[in-house]
Amino acid sequence: MNTARQPYFIVGSVRAGTTLLRLMLDHHPRIRCFGEFEYAIDLLTDDDQWPSARDYCEYLSTERRFMSNGLEAEPSQTYPEIAQSLFDQMAGRVSKPINGAVVHRHFERLTRLWPDAKFIYLYRDGRDVAKSCMAMGWAGTIWHGTQFVIDAETSWQKLCQQTELSKRLEIKSEDVVVQPESTLRQICQFLGDEFDPAMLEFHRDTTYEAPDPALVDQWRRKCSSKELRLAESRIGDLLQQRGYRLSGGPRGPVSTAEQRRLNLQNRLGRYRFAIRRYGWRLWLASWLSKRFPGTEFRERTRHRVISVDLKHLK
Question: Who contacts 150 (Cβ-Cβ below 8 Å, separation ≥6)?
């Protein structure tokens, strides 16, 4: 059985279906799955040095997920001790023998803190991921939305070089939706337990609905021909490696001039989304405050932004 010191992690790109899988696993009577846990490894770098405990605690003091979870960090501990204690605090809230969390970026760093962990890599059609990232305001173009897929695949390849085959499992997001029971059986076996029917009842007490196969391949309805050309020009080979069929439309290199236009469109699209979320006054204050680090104005503005973000986590 997994313990807090030997956890499992669901890893993969944002918008890959990790929340759905997390809710399913969390409804198992013996399996716990926390939410996003990137704040355990965001300050780590590729070298062998640990960030200072003081810097880590300062970072956590304004990290919205850490704050919403009501966790505590002890500055007298080392960085790895703090990070591991955060996981232990969450694991201690519910008495279940198998504990895990979700991490969307730089997840190859997790092996430094939990060398015995197991990893479930959840991947989804990159066209759907990119389009969904646009809807979330994280990308202003589908071209830039594909970067989340590329980054996840890069992290996964690095992680595979660091872990044994027995400690990792690749799951197709569409299989969780189309054939949930058989997919969950495979995951439970990997985690050392058996499937429980309660896993398919998550929709009765959450805001998520039961898996709907009609939601698979949404890119066919939502992506324009231009968006498909851009997405498949950038990640077409990756899609095929993962078993996805291309649209059949044209693929070609993106010119330097088009890349400049896409960069501008991406920036403007993200600005528009942020203004809708925060209002133009707070957005402008946030934009200006980044030019004045270490000032009371910046700290006050950052806390106002965090307050809005926390409301969107509920």
Answer: 234, 235, 238
User: Between the CA atoms of 277, 312, 22 and 1, what dihedral angle is there, to the nearest 10 degrees?
Assistant: 130
Task: Label the pairing between strands 31-36 and 168-172.
Answer: unpaired
Is residue 21 within 8 Å of 122, Cβ to Cβ?
Answer: yes
User: Does the pLDDT at position 1 exceed 70?
Assistant: no
CA dist 110 and 154 (Å) reads 14
Quickly state the pLDDT bin for 4 (edges 50, 70, 90).
Answer: low
Lowest mean pLDDT among 9-13, 55-59, 163-167, 302-306: 302-306
293 token code pair: 């680090």
Report helix, strand and coil shares of the chain as percent, to nearest 5.
55, 10, 35
Q: Which two tokens stand for residue 186?
A: 């495979």
Q: State the pLDDT at residue 311.
A: 76
- pLDDT over 90 percentage in the chain: 80
C-alpha to C-alpha distance for 206 and 193, rounded to whole angstroms: 24
For residue 313, give every residue at least 6 positions away whose Cβ sits within 8 Å of its Cβ, in sequence order, or none. 64, 65, 68
Pairing between β-strand 118-123 and β-strand 8-11 as defined by DSSP bridges: parallel
Strand partners, 102: 10, 36
Instruction: Provide the token pair at 59.
Output: 């970072």
> Tell me, what's the pLDDT at 5?
59
